[in-house]
Design goal:
globular; mainly alpha
């Protein structure tokens, strides 16, 4: 079960990343940010429980930055330059 949770979290992050690279998703969109926030949060918790501190740092930071992006997008988005 633990492996399934890890795989689902990784798939969420990677799918959003791949779709952004293919220019299917905008990196400021909720469709990109929500899977990143959710997937990386799942992976950060799993890393914490396993004492894998490098991955806690990586995934925790990814989750926080993505969650801040979600909040910003919900408040009105990013200014276009």
């Amino acid at each position: 079960m633990e492996q399934l949770v890890q795989i689902l979290g990784a798939v969420a992050v990677l799918a959003a990343f791949v779709l952004a690279q293919w220019r299917v998703l905008d990196t400021a969109s909720l469709a990109y940010l929500v899977p990143n926030a959710a997937g990386s949060a799942v992976l950060a918790v799993d890393a914490w429980l396993g004492g894998e501190w490098g991955f806690v740092l990586l995934e925790g930071t990814w989750a926080i930055v993505s969650a801040l992006g979600v909040a910003r997008a919900r408040r009105g988005g990013y200014a276009k330059s």
